[in-house]
Amino acid sequence: MTSPVEPLLPGTRRALLHRIATAQAEGRTPSLVAAVRRQGQTVWDGSRSCVEGHAPDPDTQFRIGSLTKTFTAVLVLRLRDEGLLDLSDPLEKHLPGTGAGEVTVHQLLGHSAGLGAETTAPWWERTPGSLRPTLADVLGEQIALHPPGRRHHYSNPGYTLLGSLIEAVRGASWEEVLRQEILEPLGMHRTSFLPQAPHAGGWAVHPWADAMLPEPAEDLGLMAPAGQLWSTTADLLRFAGFLAEGDDRVLCAASVEEMKQPSSAPETGSLDHYGLGLQLLRRKGRTLIGHTGSLPGFLAALWVSAEDDVAAVVLVNATSGVAIGEVAADLVDIVAEAEPRIPEPWRPLPEVDGELLALTGAWYWATRPHILRLTAGRGLDLRPANGQGRGARFVARPDGTWVGLDGYYAGETLRVVRNTDGSVSHLDLGSFVFTREPYEPAAPVPGGVDPEGWRGLGD
Length: 459
Description:
This protein is of the alpha+beta class. Helix content is 25%, strand content 22%.
């Protein structure tokens, strides 16, 4: 049982409208459309246009540029989950002869493969893909700019390689795989490879005069997996719901969560990270996941705050002028701050294992107190008592141990060590000994415990 969906308050709706109206006016964009999702439903949409009576609606297509990369990343994770590849595989294993065969699938997904940011001339976003009919035409002669795995360096050609990888493993076009494996299951019927009416036209606005110039809308060919798609706010909010929780028809929640983890160190001077096909933005104490996009004539942004249960999409039809990522983030902030998420009612676990319940409570690593709590599905949560330091969630394994899901202990094994009589001796976490008392004498504390025990200054 979940809380009923509540409409946004009038003040919140006006604040959202004011934000997009300001963005359209100050950014001097022909049109702008936006929408917000909460509790699994669209709770607000709005638009502005320079043409009276012709503002776009949630069904109007705009080009979404690099938001396309997130879709491509989902398709790659699907291949991994099916056992058809591993993220640590070198590209050469599945797509030979590219000249970039030593880079891994994971490095391509997270933009740490060291490839160039753009294709060789001419400017690929404004020219037809027929000018780059092969991967060699995309990558050029200087394929690598940095050693693979050393740094984050955003690469559009890297996602072209991922699109070709998908085609090689699936034996079908990237477009067809995308349609069958993501768009149809999620009901995204207004997301397409080429524009479908009604759709916006792309424009460039003169920087020093209120004048416009139409931008070409090219078929990007091999570069399509990096930025080809057209979509609507309605469809993108469906995709936002998938990114928030996963969908077993497309990608399970655990794999979607994996996409949200930082894949490498951020670019120099940046505090933001990149996951696997997702940008990760820390802002005003909340984490936003999603992606921005741009192609000549269009800007797009989608952000999801899972902790607030709020997602926002903003689409405009101008080459520049609007800080698109900031506007979409502001919409999330407006709703999250004006109408904070109402938590679900507390409920007890459906069942409680008595042996696990006996493990809960205080444990000590050396002299540092920790609290162990029982969670759903025989899971455990171990945190410092003062809330500072290393803590993690753990999920149960069939062999009676637990594996860390996050933080310092991600992937580490937690086991209960018992005495010969079956009583609990201590917890072992990656060789760290946790005892019921600080430096408990009877526990096998490495280095032993002084037999004279604790003492005062005069002892």
